[in-house]
Amino acid sequence: MSTVTVQVIKTEADYQEALRRLRQLLNAPQDTPEGDEADVLTLLITAYEDKHVHIEPADPVEVIKLAMDQKDLKQADLAPYMGGRTRVSEVLNRKRGLTKSMIISLSKAFDIPVEALMPKV
C-alpha cells in the first residue's frame, strides 16, 4: 500500500491547486502512487465542491437551444415533439412552458436528460 500526501482543501487557492494537480495526474495508472493520489484528490475536490460550489440548474430553454445548435436543428425540426411550430416558438420565446409530454418527447428524441428540461423550482 502506498502513502499519498495531500492536504485538506480549505480555501479557493487550495481548490485551484488541487485541480491543477489532478489535471497532471489524469492519465496516471491505477494502483500506482500517482493513481492513488488522483483518487484521493478526486474525493477531496468533490467534497469541497459539494460544500462550496453552487451550480445553478440549466435553463430548459437554453438546454433546447444548445441541443438545436449541436444537432444543427431548426425550430421546425422540434414541431413534431412539441405540438407544432407555434408551440415551439412560444416555448423558445418563453411565452409558454414545457409540458410533461413535451419534456418526455424531447428527451427521447434528442437524448436530453429529463432533469435538464424540468423547470427550475
Can you offer a commentary on this structure?
This protein has 2 domains: 12-52; 60-117, 434 Repressor (Amino-terminal Domain) (Orthogonal Bundle). Helix content is 63%, strand content 0%. The chain contains 7 helices and no strands. The chain has helices spanning 12-25, 33-52, 60-70, 75-82, 85-92, 100-110, 114-117. Helix 1 runs antiparallel to helix 2 (33-52) and helix 4 (75-82) crosses helix 5. This is Helix-turn-helix motif. It comes from uncultured Cytophagales bacterium.
Key features?
7 helices; elongated; single chain; 121 residues; 434 Repressor (Amino-terminal Domain); mainly alpha
What is the averaged pLDDT score? 92
Structural class comes to: mainly alpha
Provide the β-strand percentage band. under 5%
What is the radius of gyration? 21 Å
**CATH homologous superfamily of the largest domain?**
lambda repressor-like DNA-binding domains
The CA-CA distance between the termini, in Å, is: 47 Å
Unreliable residue runs: none
How would you characterize the largest beta sheet? none
Number of domains: 2
Query: How much helix, percentage-wise, in residues?
Result: 55-70%
What's the total count of β strands?
Answer: 0
Order of helices and strands: HHHHHHH
CATH topology assignment of the largest domain? 434 Repressor (Amino-terminal Domain)
CATH class of the largest domain: Mainly Alpha
Instruction: Report the principal-axis shape.
Output: elongated
> Number of helical runs?
7
